[in-house]
Amino acid sequence: MTNKTLLRALAGETLSPPPVWIMRQAGRYLPEYKATRAEAGDFLSLCYTPDLAAEVTLQPIRRYGFDAAILFADILLVPQALGADLWFVTGEGPRLSTITTQADFDALKPASDVHETLSPVYETVRILARELPSETTLIGFAGAPWTVATYMIAGQGTPDQGPAHALKAENRALFEALLDRITEATILYLSAQVEAGAEVVKIFDSWAGSLEGDDFRRYAVEPAARITKALKDKHPGLPVIAFPRGAGEKYEGLHAAIGADCIAIDDGVTADWAAKHVQPGGCVQGNLPNHLLVTGGQELVAETRKVVEALSGGPHIFNLGHGITPDADPENVHLMLNAIRGG
Ligand code: 1CP
Fold first, then answer.
1. What pLDDT is stored for residue 91 in this prediction?
2. Could you identify the atom of ligand 1 that is nearest to the CA of residue 71?
3. Domain ranges in the chain?
4. pLDDT beyond 70 at 139
5. Class of domain 6-341 as given by CATH
């Protein structure tokens, strides 16, 4: 049996305490992250310099002993590998060249070209596979096609994904061709991460919550199912975590619909609800509200215990409902870990 608790939970084991890691665990709330990022100069150089990307991936493992490390990269590297321009505006966020016409789409590269840009990421994975402690699981990841498309169409983050919904309404063929291109690229990208040493992959669909009715099935569930099947066909036994953020009641039945081993949930549903409606399908990851790592105190301890307790009857990976924020106090992560691990 493996000593990697995250892999055991993904295989369906109920563990007490549950394995734990947190989204954005390598990030700006950590002084050592800020120092390495300054050394890299800018965010994209950090992503594309394997030694430095591996270093920031390892920092939260050294500090906290999380049960999993997540490769340091970004979901927007795939658009860049497909030929989109990508840059980050300090204090604002990502900017990309937009895809709104057939001509914009025709100028993109074929999916098979993505390795040219993304090969430094595979080198980061190889370094991590060598350097991580033997009990720590290495998670690779990519954005889900819908979420990646929302950035490619709008050229930036948007509160309601308006431009992507508009393209879907106005030129569905073009919208679907873009989703297909991203899906093919994502399969190749994740498969290369697995070949380099990633033991699990996670698909981040951060904006799945704005897809309604049949759109949720067609543009969140189906692309994730296609990616999952292609990866499992090529890498039998590979565990997959799907994170359609904001799915609400649609989380029910998603293990089977996507074919994923684990469904990650945000804090828009309660852990009690997830125990009844999602955990019967398989492992659940989540879902402490991330603002509690800013505010801390007894509320953090009590809410952490509540999540652990609610999901203790089945396979569970403890995590947040969304990424830890730059204003979180690193000491609060210790408080949370003590509450989980019984300190
Ligand atoms: O200033 C900085 O240092 C950059 C902040 C930052 C970080 C730390 C960005 C820019 N990306 C990342 C790393 C990152 N992004 C990881 C690394 C692993 C880890 O979790 O520790 C991961 C998994 C992501 C995934 C990601 N990037 C998502 C999906 C998850 C989520 O948070 O919903 C999304 C939507 C992005 C886009 C992105 N990248 C960065 C920012 C600020 C954003 C959000 C843009 C927006 O819509 O406002």
1. 87
2. 18
3. 6-341
4. yes
5. alpha beta
